[in-house]
């Protein structure tokens, strides 16, 4: 085994073991019923290190398939100190997304860093209330107002960070672009020292958000907690300034997310959200609004470098839009509605490389699926690749084929098969925002530049999000002005 991989695994394993040894509990004795086949593995460790190693080596999909071949579509194992049931297939996904007996299970590190009043932690009426508030900011009438702002941010970013350079590293640039966009729309922040400070804090937040929650000075989790505290103070200050602007008539509900959430009231006229809820959900929106979108666009750039036919079709679609625009005129909502092929390319990229490998739920009562008992308190784990790469659902799944998503009315696959945006009551509320961000960015990218990959070793790892080798360095060539 490569020595760097060994060191990486040790770095992950030691804090995992230290943490779990202090917290692991004997599994609750289940009620009468047939448990799924499989093994919980070694005490404390279970199969956690095997899965982490597979994710780092980008063989996690094979690891999941090996379990399916050995035990079938339902099996038991132990992940991160908890007994777990792996459920696979469209019917299993539907069960996971829609069952009221399953609660979202986030790693403890996420709750500690992002707060316990976020949409990720709440259930029932509170979850519905918070989701409705965020959806108010992301409804089509509001999104139409943001296209011009996003357009301006994308053009500024490309002028400052791409134009005139012979090479760039794509992933860190995409992360900064999407962070600048989301911080503008959430808080009204223009490029400034304050925005740079928030970006720096959030880089540290992301480094520790999936870490083992051991709060020791040398750990990524500890650094992330401190960065989160700084970011929360900054957001609370923005909240107070925005409230004052609203009271003076200098801001409106459509100004940004903070203004929108502060303006929402219930039937009695009381504020719908508390300050703590606004801060916590602003933190979540910052993470969700820039991390997965930057991964999607990075992997689109990666794929297009070696797929000239798909790239040519995209360029043609974007040039058709540009022909009807004046010099310097921003894209609008109607333009984006015409970029159907580009969005199909994005969806196919998400199918092949889903940013979220899988996720957990927790059984809040004894529950049965496919004849097997899932005891109360056990985790339920699902993985996107199981259906995304199923030849019975997507013909020739290893082939990149955007035409799979031509017939949107038929959803291009059985329900709960394409799960890049999740499903059920927790279906990604920001999908339309991600679509706008992606389409605007790709419009200017494919029209202004050509590129090729610097590395012949076109690989990526998951930690836990997919990350291409060395951040995807590319050689860049600027096209002549049209």
TrEMBL record:
Enumerate the Gene3D superfamilies for this protein: Cytochrome P450
One annotated GO molecular function: monooxygenase activity
| SUPFAM superfamilies attached to this UniProt entry | Cytochrome P450
Query: What is the name attached to this protein's record?
Result: Cytochrome P450
Tell me the residue numbers annotated for binding heme.
428
Query: What is one process in the GO biological process aspect for this record?
Result: sterol metabolic process
Which organism is this entry from?
Miscanthus lutarioriparius
Q: Which domain of life is it from?
A: Eukaryota
User: Could you say which protein family the record assigns here?
Assistant: Belongs to the cytochrome P450 family.
Q: Which cofactor does it need?
A: heme
Q: Which InterPro entries match?
A: Cyt_P450 (IPR001128), Cyt_P450_CS (IPR017972), Cyt_P450_E_grp-I (IPR002401), Cyt_P450_sf (IPR036396)
Asked whether the keyword Transmembrane is assigned, the reply is no
Q: List, alphabetically, the PROSITE patterns matched.
A: CYTOCHROME_P450
Q: What keywords are annotated for this sequence in UniProt? A: Heme, Iron, Metal-binding, Monooxygenase, Oxidoreductase
Q: Which CDD domains match?
A: CYP90-like
